[in-house]
Amino acid sequence: MSALNSNSNPSFKPCVVIPVYNHEHAIAAVVEAVLRFDTPCILVDDGSSHACATVLDQLQQTYSAQVVLLRHVQNQGKGAAVLTGFEYAAKNGYSHLLQVDADGQHCVADIARFLKQAETYPAAVIAGYPIYDESVPKLRLYARYLTHVWVWINTLSFAIRDSMCGFRVYPVAPVITLMSRHKIGSRMNFDTDILVRLYWDGLEVVNEGTRVGYPADGVSHFRVWRDNALITAMHTRLFFGMLLRLPHLLMRTIKRTKQKKRD
Fold first, then answer.
1. Closest Cα partner for 102 from 220, 184, 197, 1?
2. Which has fewest Cβ within 10 Å: 25, 93, 122, 245?
3. Where along the sequence do coiled-coil regions lie (predicted)?
4. Burial level of 124, CB count in 10 A (0-12/13-18/19+)?
C-alpha cells in the first residue's frame, strides 16, 4: 500500500453524489444520513416520476445549504447521472466524489472511513466490496462472480476485488480526463466500465469492505434483458481493449507482484 501514497496529498475537497430514479421512499433517509458527515451532497434526478421529483425538491429546500439538485428531463441511466455529478463537481472545485446509491442498500456510516482512505491515497479509487447480510438474493450473489472473472481477465490482475458495488470514492480529475476520451457505460454497465478503464489509465484501487443489505421493500431498476446485453457488450469491448494493452498490463502486474513481495 505504500506505493499508493507516493504523491503529496492535494487539497482534499470531497462531495457525495447520489443518482436517483424513483426512490422516493428511501432517498430522504439516505440524504439525512449522508449529511451527518458534513459533506456537500449532489442529488441527480435521472428523470424520476412526479412523486419522487417532489420529494427531491423538498429535500433540496430543507437542506439548501448542503444539497444541490441536478436534473435530467428524461431517464438516461445511473451512469449518466453519476457523470453529470462529476461534471458539476469538477466545475465547482471538488477534488473527490463519493458515489452512493439512492435505494438504501449501502451502509452510509462507512462514509467517514472511505473519505479517510481517499485523503490518505488521493490518487487512487477507494472501491467498496460488499459484505452481505442474509437479505442478499442468492442468484444475484452468484451471478456477480461472472463479472469478477471478466474483470480479472480484462485487467490481468486481482487488483479489483468487486467492480459492481456502487459505493466508492473517485478522484475527480482522472474521471473528467477519461470522460473526454471515452464514452463510459451509462446504465448498469457503468460501475464496472469506469473502474476497469481507470485502472487501465494507471490508477490504483484500494478495496474497502462495506456492508450491503437488500431491504424487503427495495426498488430495483435492473432490466434483465437490456442490462445483461449491455454488460455482455461491455465485457466484450473491455476484452479487446485489454488485448491492445496486454504488454503494459502484464508489466504492471509483474511490478505489483514484486512490490507485494518487498512489502
1. 220
2. 93
3. none
4. buried
The size of the chain, in residues, is: 263
Question: In terms of DSSP bridges, do strands 96-99 and 168-171 run parallel, antiparallel, or are they unpaired?
Answer: antiparallel
pTM for the model stands at 0.88
Q: Count of domains in the chain?
A: 1
Nearest-5° Cα angle at 34, 161 to 73: 90
Return the exposure string of 48-73: e unless at least 16 CB atoms fall within 10 Å of the residue's CB, then b.
beeebbebbeebbeebeebbbbbbbe
Does a structural domain hold residue 136?
Answer: yes
Q: What are phi and psi of 171, to 5 degrees?
A: -70, 135
In the DSSP assignment, the letter for residue 106 is B
Domain membership of residue 211 (yes or no) is: yes
Q: Classify residue 3: in a domain, yes or no.
A: no
In a domain, 92, yes or no: yes
Q: Look up the domain containing 127 and give its range.
A: 12-262
Per-residue model confidence as pLDDT tens digits over 92-139: 999 999 999 999 889 999 999 999 999 999 999 999 999 977 666 666
